[in-house]
Amino acid sequence: MGRSPCCEKAHMNKGAWTKEEDQLLVDYIRKHGEGCWRSLPRAAGLQRCGKSCRLRWMNYLRPDLKRGNFTEEEDELIIKLHSLLGNKWSLIAGRLPGRTDNEIKNYWNTHIKRKLLSRGIDPNTHRLINESAVVSPSTLQNDVVETLHLDFAGKVKPEPVREEIGGINNCTSSGTTSEKDYGNEEDWVLNLELSVGPSYRYESTRKVSVVDSAESTRRWGSELFGTQSDAVCLCCRIGLFHNESCRNCRVSDVRTH
DNA sequence: AACTAGAGCAACCGCATCGCG
DNA sequence: ACGCGATGCGGTTGCTCTAGT
């Protein structure tokens, strides 16, 4: 019994992709678009399972991928996002145009971990290795640290946010704040329109309908954060995209907001 | 030149989540 | 509400390349 395999593996190629396979996949997707990965291999004439095709496309063949070395700005952004999100590579990748989750994950494991360790920072907790106190001040400007806040969809998970504001987060997947401090995980939703900013007042955004009894937490969020119009994306707040359009804010000059 | 160890990265695997009937 | 297939995600593996001896 048990789950049926995602594909018939007996006659499938495995291992590195050949140029011919790449070409077949690219040609097929150009013609038909992405989607239906399970049936794609057969339709494209590939002896690969759908998962493998998807991975190859996502991580290597997509035309919008940015190849080459990570910039210093990207490094810092990854570190900051990891301190907020933990090993949520796909979410982190969503904030780095042209980078894939796999690429970022590999880069983290091979470069950034070492970089943080050399700074005396534990890459898992983002805390200084020799001190129990706070955390990676070297990587975040003070004004940003003081005002780091998260914006929640529908429900607010208050305590960790307060911790964000007071020092730096405990929100990573390996964080230490216990679940009982803010209820069940299912009761709150982190809106990944993460924002970092000065002490603007900020209202929790509600991308999904609020169907809960969280009026109090909502009010709490409003009192704490003010209106959403003040929110600026993380990239802009930490000073990236100084001279170019930010894809998150759609604003060409971040100094104006 | 040959060998070895380590780094880097593409790809795989298994589980989780989503979405549709 | 439930079951099941499809897709997505994160951890891990293993191959390739390169630097050191």
From TrEMBL:
Annotated Myb-like domain ranges read 9-61, 62-112
List the Gene3D superfamilies hit by this protein, alphabetically. Answer: Homeodomain-like (1.10.10.60)
- Where are its TM segments located? none
Major place of residence = nucleus
What GO terms are given for molecular function?
A: transcription cis-regulatory region binding
UniProt keyword annotation of Membrane present: no
- List each copy of the HTH myb-type domain by range: 9-61, 62-116
Q: Where in the cell is it found?
A: Nucleus
This protein's UniProt keywords: DNA-binding, Nucleus, Repeat, Transcription, Transcription regulation
Return the protein name. Answer: Uncharacterized protein
